[in-house]
Amino acid sequence: MGPNDPDDAGAQRPGDLPGDGDRPDAPAEQAGAGDGGATQSNASASVVVQDALPDTMFVFPLRKAAPFPHLMMPLLLDQPAAREIVAKAEAHNGYLFLVLQKDPEQEEPGPDGVHEVGVITRILKTLRLPDGSMSSMTQGMRRARIVKLVRQAPHMVARVKELVEIPAQGERAGSLFRLLQKQLQKLAEMQDQGDAGFATALLNVDDPGQIADFTAGVVRKVADRQRLLDQVDVEKRLELALQLAMAEGELVALDKKILGEIRDKAEKAQKDYFLREQLKSIRRELGEEKDPRTAELHRLEEAVAKAKLPDAAQKRAREELTRLQTTPVESAEYGVVRNYLDWLVTLPWSVSTADDTDLDRAARVLADDHYGLDEVKDRILEFLAVRKLRPGHPGSILCLSGPPGVGKTSLGRSIARAMGRKFFRFSLGGMRDEAEIKGHRRTYVGAMPGRILQGLKAAGSNNPVLLLDEIDKLGSDFRGDPSSALLEVLDPEQNHAFADHYLDVPFDLSKVMFLATANVLSDIPEPLRDRMEILEIPGYLLEEKVEIARRHLLPKQLERHGLLGKHLSVAPPVLRQIVQQHTREAGVRGLDKVVQRLCRKIARAVAGGGKGPGRLSAAEATQLLGRPRFQPEERRKLRLPGVVQGLAWTPFGGDVLYVEAIASKGKGALQLTGSLGDVMSESARLALSYLRGHADRFGLDLQAMGEQDLHLHFPAGAIKKDGPSAGIAIACAFLGALLGRTAPADVAMTGELTVVGEVLPIGGVREKVLAAKNFGVKRVLLPKGNEAEARELRPELVEGIDLRFVDRFEQVFDLVYGAAAPVRRPAGGGEPVRRRGRSGGSAGDRSRR
């Protein structure tokens, strides 16, 4: 059962002092009750109380109120269980035992769910309220304790025993009584709405036990009120009541302090607001200040006049200004139109920067910022030369392609500095929404222009250098295709009237110099790649990395780490050792991290009071950087049959990888491992078919091959590998395993093998030759179809490498394993059939490591 607490209509808030109904002199019918704040009966208007009270009665649990003797308590009977208890109590003997629940949320508490000490009350009258509920008025009689549960269902009936109070005697009890009276009067005075009758009632209460019970009306916590009820020793009850009243006084004082601070702040803010509004009104009357709406319109009109908009944009601006004048400020459309006009007038329609056509200065800037990259620098100087002869020439769109860390992004910044233009870069990696390029339409909440126009606004001119970084990593899904949106941007025949969805007026992008960067050209859609001029940056040689570290990386990191030249300097031989032992990459990003690590260790030593090593020696470099990660000649010392060095292309540059084959007793099966793709698996089966068809040419025994299984493996099995360019390397590995012959340690090869023995061209020649040079390979076998491309490589790139070009696998066999028997001619005589043409270039070469 879960009867309600005393009537909420008369309940007092926690912390409030008792009202008129709580005063001892208040009539019983005016009494109110709350959470333990029941009213005390009038001392003068006595109520007849029987000396002998029944000891068995119904138990009425209270959720949030503690009852007290001599108090009038109305009970709100809004639940059937509560009404049944009161009705049965009236029919039984007219008494109820009011007791506080331990858990106020419990619906039907049992004997263990209520406190032992409560109050015996007499039911005076039951009333029906206007809202249909019922209320019963009860009067507290005496403290009592539950001694036995007579019945639990359907409603608790208990046998109770009256508690005999221990009277308060002596001077200490009298002192506690007076102190409690003063504290309660002090609490009454601290109330904002003080009641003079409350203080009078306090003075007229002369019973120590009653004034202690009276204190429960000002105590906030129900548990503290129950402690007062449990205490039968009046002197101890007075002491507890004084403690609770003093604590309540401190809380009331704190409440008043906080309330006063908040009221002062609110009054000051309100006063300042009214003064500002009055000041604005006075200024408007004097003509010194315009209405905010009028001032905003005037600002936009002046901005439109100063922006020097083209005709189409000027017309649209006037139309939107007219709409803004007739749109209420409170309307959402007002903010949309104002934002549109702000964008329209802040774009650099007619703001341009003058190009610096001094070719010598541009060459110096490019040389200062980057070492090497001569082809790219020459192309930039050619572009500047054309712009010098014909300023209005739009030029072409350059795409810098190469592995990570070769300086593509920083080269774009250097190009802008060499031309004297503003620079803006934004990354296209992961972009999947075409609205990022062409903007959102104004019908969407929070719409804004695309990244192109945002970049122009940030640059502040209509002819900046705009770098589209990572263009090969554009996404494409159901949300849109940004690469298709870029077709209009990067087409010189269309971008003079670029239409952004948000702006909805054409903007001239023909003066913008667009640059793009990419790692993998094959990931760029063909129509987009066709609009750009590709400049490939293959990577850096060892000598170039040493110079880059000496000229750029080391000075930059010294400055960033607060070091001076006297703290650390590195000679070229030591830099060469660092590059060879701690980096293996096409770019210099990993080398930059190694230099950072070196500078951090020196900075720690200098910060600790040391002087730093000064000129770094090779031994000190090894001590600071730890054991070498790579060896300069990281080739296998023990040459085994079936192991061949191949050349691979990856998005991070070229690489040298081993092709391993082994023959074992079996039934002629072929096993492939090393995370090989479909194309590479087909190359392995094709190579084996070619060798079986030309077994006599290479000294193979077909019967013995039928009794042997071949296992082909590419190390680094966790990395996927694919592509046709490992065909001749796979065939050489098979021959070495079947013949028991070893391949030379200084030979690496690449080329696609056909089933008739032709060697077809492949892609990534520059990257593969660079990887072979850095790896220490002396001879490189390339397809004959790649000879023209290889001859165009820089002399320093192929210095020390013997390039051999082949178009038949028999030539490969002779170069790797030595001369063999003459080539068998087809039946009927004639030359072997040869296929011509490329196999797809770099797009077809996907050997990855």
Describe the protein in words.
This protein is an alpha/beta fold. The chain has 28 helices and 25 strands. The chain has a 7-stranded mixed sheet. The protein has a 5-stranded mixed beta barrel with strand order 2-4-5-6-7. Strand 11 and strand 12 (about 505) form a beta hairpin. Helix 2 (about 170-190) runs antiparallel to helix 3 and helix 8 (about 310-325) packs antiparallel against helix 9. It is elongated and about 130 Å long. Residues about 1-50 and about 820-849 have low confidence and may be disordered.
Which spans have pLDDT < 50 for at least 5 consecutive residues?
1-50, 820-849
Profile the largest sheet. Answer: 7 strands, mixed
Strand order of the largest sheet: 19-20-18-17-21-24-25
Radius of gyration, in angstroms, nearest whole number: 48 Å
Strand content: 15-25%
Helix content: 40-55%
Structural class: alpha/beta
How far apart are the first and last residues' alpha carbons, in Å? 76 Å
- Mean pLDDT over the residues: 81
Helix tally?
28
